[in-house]
Design goal:
heterodimer, A: alpha+beta, seven-stranded antiparallel β-sheet, 3 helices, 21% helix, disordered N terminus, B: mainly alpha, two-stranded antiparallel sheet, 6 helices, 2 strands
Chain lengths: 163, 129
């Protein structure tokens, strides 16, 4: 296992799905299918680009209804690995509707959020169904600097002390 | 490192933070190292009571006691808090929810047992009275 070298800044989720890998694969790679489940709940997902080729572009938008009116978020990126129906790797970065990447700070996210993240979907046939392992990781070059973290911590500790 | 170990450590971090005195001690240490005496000063607590709180923070890895001076000053170690607030963990509930919906959609498709097609829009003619 490679668990010790796994990036610390990653979320890994395993699921057993009651459908063959070929069908699960289509959920991730066909724009219409992807838009139907990607969510979040109450959001409308529009897939503006899904060019299923290594180096091919992705551009996915989400519109959420908020008390202040509709809020739009766009994510751009590209496919890095395509091994149908076993392994899919793509990058993701916050962007505008045209696919121009923005920094996390510009999008109102915490400073330690990496600019580019990478999503890996691994599918293995398992007893008629599929085992799915999803990894969402920061791209190491963008890992947060120690200074930024120290400042964030000062704020957190001050907040805790005042609580 | 296993998920279970991570989980235990997080529990310990949260338990250590769940106390006003200990949070105040951390806030003081965020400004720089301090001896136990210095830390105890603003509190109406005995030195042994302060030491007990510091031990809890030490066990959670939030405070390190230096060995380079006889009074062994306390220093803040932020790394366990970093695990708590990792940007990646913020995505976990979002992905769990997404995969729930993916699962639902797969079930629907399996039930219809035909390749998914764009949904046809029915002309609304029935409603006329």
């Amino acid at each position: 296992m490679t668990e010790d070298t796994r990036p610390r800044d990653a979320v890994v989720i395993e699921r057993e799905l009651d459908a063959p890998p070929e069908l699960v694969w289509r959920m991730w790679t066909e724009a219409e299918q992807f838009a139907a489940w990607y969510g979040p709940t109450g959001a409308t997902v529009s897939v503006r680009r899904m060019d299923l080729a290594v180096g091919g572009g992705r551009l996915v938008g989400m519109t959420m209804q908020t008390p202040d009116g509709p809020m739009e978020m766009w994510f751009t990126g590209e496919f890095r690995e395509i091994v149908e129906p076993e392994r899919l790797v793509y990058t993701e970065a916050m962007s505008d509707a045209e696919g121009t990447a923005k920094t996390a700070a510009e999008m109102g996210m915490p400073d330690d959020h990496p600019v580019v993240t990478e999503v890996t979907v691994e599918l293995t046939a398992s007893g008629g169904g599929t085992r799915l392992v999803l990894t969402h990781a920061g791209v190491p070059a963008d890992s947060p600097g120690a200074m930024g973290w120290k400042m964030a911590l000062d704020k957190l500790v001050a907040h805790l002390a005042g609580a | 490192m296993t998920a279970m170990l991570d989980d235990d450590r997080l529990s310990e971090t949260f338990a250590a933070l769940a106390n006003t005195t200990r949070r105040a001690l951390l806030a003081r240490l965020a400004h720089g190292e301090a001896s136990v005496n210095e830390l105890a000063e603003p509190f109406d607590l005995s030195l042994p009571a302060i030491s007990k709180h510091l031990k809890v923070l030490e066990r959670a890895g939030l405070v390190v006691r230096s060995r380079r001076a006889q009074y062994r000053p306390c220093e803040l170690d932020a790394s366990p808090l970093r695990d708590v607030s990792s940007w990646a963990e913020a995505y976990r509930p979002l992905w769990e929810e997404r995969l729930d919906r993916l699962d639902d959609q797969l079930r629907q498709l399996q039930r219809s047992s035909t390749p998914p097609e764009p949904r046809r829009i029915e002309p609304d003619q029935e409603d006329r009275t």
